Amino acid sequence: MVVGFTQHAVLPGPNSGWSEAATAGALERKLVGPIWMHGRLVTDTWLGDAADPPVETHDDLQRASVLVTVTGVMAAVLASSLLFAFR
Fold first, then answer.
1. How distant, in Å, are the alpha carbons of 43, 44, 75, 77 from that of 72?
2. CA 10 to CA 33: how far, in whole Å?
3. What secondary structure letter does DSSP report for 79?
4. How confident is the model at residue 87 (pLDDT cuts 50, 70, 90)?
5. What is the pLDDT of residue 20?
6. 3-state secondary structure 15-71
7. Domain enclosing residue 81, as ranges
């Protein structure tokens, strides 16, 4: 969670820094890495704790998929609960 708060604005561009940084922290892996645009290095910054390894295995992808699924379901349940509560 600390990674999300401290690194959400590190990367340039319109992508969602909050979700990328929070995911890096939750998975305890480095995400993003070098970004190239039109053959030019835009940034070589990684999101995540410096001691964490980069995402690189199938298990990392499975953990990320579970994280996205669980948080999506939790958001849907919360939204549904709020809709019924304020009905």
1. 30, 30, 5, 9
2. 12
3. H
4. confident
5. 86
6. CCHHHHHHHHHHHCCEECCCEEECCEEEECCCECCCCCCECCCHHHHHHHHHHHHHH
7. 2-85
Bridge partner residues of 40 (DSSP): 37
Q: How many domains does the chain have?
A: 1
What's the pLDDT score for residue 82?
A: 97
The owner of tokens 């390894």 is: 53
Instruction: Give me 22's structure tokens.
Output: 């929070």
Closest alpha carbon to 50 in 14, 16, 6, 18: 6
Tens of pLDDT along 21-72?
A: 889 999 999 988 788 889 999 888 888 888 999 988 999 999 999 999 999 9
Question: What are 65's two structure tokens?
Answer: 């998929």
Higher pLDDT, residue 83 or 45: 83
